Amino acid sequence: MIKKLYNRKSKEQLLAQIEKEDFRRKTISFYRYVKIADPKTMRDFLYVNFEKFGCLGRIYVAHEGINAQMNVPEHNFEAFDKFIQSIPEFVGVPYKVAVEEKGKSSFLKLIVKVRPKIVADGLDDSTFDPANTGAYASAEEVNEMIDKGATVIDMRNFYEAEIGHFENAKIMPVDTFREQLAKVENMFSDKKDEEVLLYCTGGIRCEKASAWMKHKGFKNVKHIKGGVIDYAHQVKEKGLPNKFKGKNFVFDERLGEKVGDEIISVCHLCDKNKTDEHRHCKNENCHVLHLSCDDCLEKYKGYCSNFCRLCDALPSKMNRFLVRRDRRQQHGNQYRKNYLRKNFDNF
Predict the structure, then answer these.
(1) Average pLDDT over residues 275-304
(2) Would you say 46 and 52 are in contact if contact means Cβ atoms under 8 Å apart?
């Protein structure tokens, strides 16, 4: 059993270490719903080999499969691919390659965790078969469905959809995928006999969601193969019209990659200037993810509010008390409420 599974260095140390690298990294993601008999043994096996290749990222392993978001040194990518393809459970698994890279590394350390599920869904239904998914839709089919007015449902969190989404997509006012699955049947109950298209970042959430909706009686559910990431590559390679507006949110140091040229979101602090730059509040006891324009970044010195800036100047215990978890949640909800007020009037 491996005792050292995570890098314990500080963020500053990790950044300094990456800054010294004289090679490029390739950001990829991949997933597969497949039975893994012993997730802990698989976790240890993956960690040892990924560390050997110099990989960084966040990988979840469960009895139901694997969900990996990571980067690989370009000079080791061939060896990495050979290793992945040598594992029976992952033979033929496709990689989604990042649309754009930012900085020297999309991840700072390597984390491989065992999870109950590779995507937290909150489902407890023994009759549900996650393998009974809806049909895949190519980029051409996606554009055709959008043009003819099919119901397109964004299976991502509201803060992801805020900075980018497909034309006329239905955006659900929720924080988590778990909430989406709990609400999607009732929110779209009138669409059970119609054509429905689901999408997410890389395909893992909408694949499970398509199976769940079929389980709940939806007759014609499709989902984008490879999610927004693969759609972006397809439209570029095939010269197709791009129906995705804005930036695609990603769960790494980049926090987003340009898919459409538009900036469709505004600053949470001034509610005026356009921006698609997500930032974390500089007060570590808050750390709330928010959109901030350059003017407000300077005005609030990297904090999400004057409240957090003032608290951060106080003694550590008092800062934690004032921005403790329950207040942090209330504080962070100002952004959710602001977004819901402006964007979810149709629900």
Answers:
(1) 92
(2) no
Dist CA 314 CA 41 (whole Å)? 46
Report pLDDT for 176: 85
* Spatial separation of the C-alpha atoms in residues 336 and 326, rounded to whole Å: 15
User: What's 20-114's CATH class?
Assistant: alpha beta
Catalytic annotation present for 200: yes
CATH placement of domain 135-246: 3.40.250.10
DSSP secondary structure string for all residues of 274-306: B---EEE-SSTTT--EEE--HHHHHHTTT-SSH
Q: Taking the domains of the chain in order of start, what are their residue ranges?
A: 20-114, 135-246, 278-343
Token pair for 214: 């079929």
Spatial neighbors of 321 by CB under 8 A, at least 6 apart, are none
Between the CA atoms of 8, 9, 12 and 17, what dihedral angle is there, to the nearest 10 degrees? -130
What's this model's pTM, rounded to 2 decimal places? 0.80
pLDDT at 126 over 60: yes
CA max distance for the chain: 59
Beta strands in 20-64 (DSSP E): 25-33, 56-62
200, 206, 286, 308: which one is catalytic? 200
Does residue 29 contact residue 68 with C-beta atoms inside 8 Å? yes
Closest to 197 (Cα-Cα) out of 232, 231, 247, 174? 231
Q: Which two tokens stand for residue 10?
A: 């500080």
Rounded Cα distance, 324 and 286, in Å: 8
